[in-house]
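step: validate -> pass
step: tokenize input -> pass
step: predict -> running
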Amino acid sequence: MTRIASRISQLNGEGALAVYSRAKELERQGRSIIHLELGEPDFHPAAPVVDAIRAAVAAGRDRYCSTRGVLALREAIAEYLKRTRRLNVVAEEVLVAPGCKMALSLAMMALIEPGDEVLFPDPSFPIYPSFTRGLGATAVPYFLEEKNKFQPDVDEIARKITPRTSMLIFNSPNNPTGTVFCEAVLEKIAALATKHDLWVLADEIYARILFGGEYKSIRSLPRMAERTAIIDGFSKSFAMTGWRLGYAVAPVEVIDAMDLLVLNTFTCAAEFTQVAAIEALRDSTNAVEAMVAEYQKRRDLFVRGLNQIPGFRCQVPDGAFYAWVNIADTGVSAEEVQKLLLEEAGVAGIAGAAFGAGGKNYLRFSLVSARKLLEEAIERIERLSVHWRAAVSR
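step: predict -> pass
step: emit ->
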């Protein structure tokens, strides 16, 4: 009989991919589907980045390279973080991986022991608690609630810290809420991490997709560089999802541990994608700024439309490219609304429970389709709302 390691039973999948599979099945049947389920930009890398990868392959940059990543890219990442986040980072504190998930997994493997407790936000990216459990640790949620504008309640976090707590994870701007953690919250989290000697795993993949103000990284706060691991990459800000390129920034001893894990697993990220990523960081055509400006227009259009749907309520997100919609007033479960939207209206969104228990009464839509498609999606949802309008008007 085939035996599967017990740790696999502790893992879970991603709800977005299940909805996507059903949406593609409906498309094969000839149905019109507006895809708002996956967090995948509908943009593509800027032309200089595409030119750079062609040139890299033509020049034979397709060999094994450093397990930590090409030095020139690690230096470029350090310079980029100084330019965009005012962080003082050196190349030795950077490790490149094939995707942010891999960078996240390496950092967690390097820092979490079986039996540890790990604090994570709910709702959030479902891999945080999944991989925590897979490592034999306990995932402990702290909640992001609408009444707090989805900012974490630091007093709640403090109450949940025990002698077994080793790490606190957060993601700002947050997926799925679009919330950017305010500086006061970051300072309080930093104080707790210092007091209780915790690692902070800061997922900053959406740091450039910000609709106002300047991004503040928790690593920049006093005494936090020594206990913070940043996860970032090229999928979201540079629309390079299929290129599978992410990185971690952490103290050198953490990078050394992660490097040993790389040596024992995938050896290195592809050299030619790393060479092209240097060009992406230069952003010579200001592609990131143009993309974020378009996301802001989509946000304004779509959130305004959602708030006109009976029973829908959506706070305006400050970053990332998601709309997080409270549908409790419809009197219909989020799972049922998700199903109705896909099967009857051809609009693919995600029921919020896919992001944790705190998402029970929510839907997440990704702003990854053109404005004309978002307008059509609002029209389709409006027509479908006949299913619950009576409950809303009571």
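step: describe -> The chain has a mean pLDDT of 96.
step: cleanup -> pass
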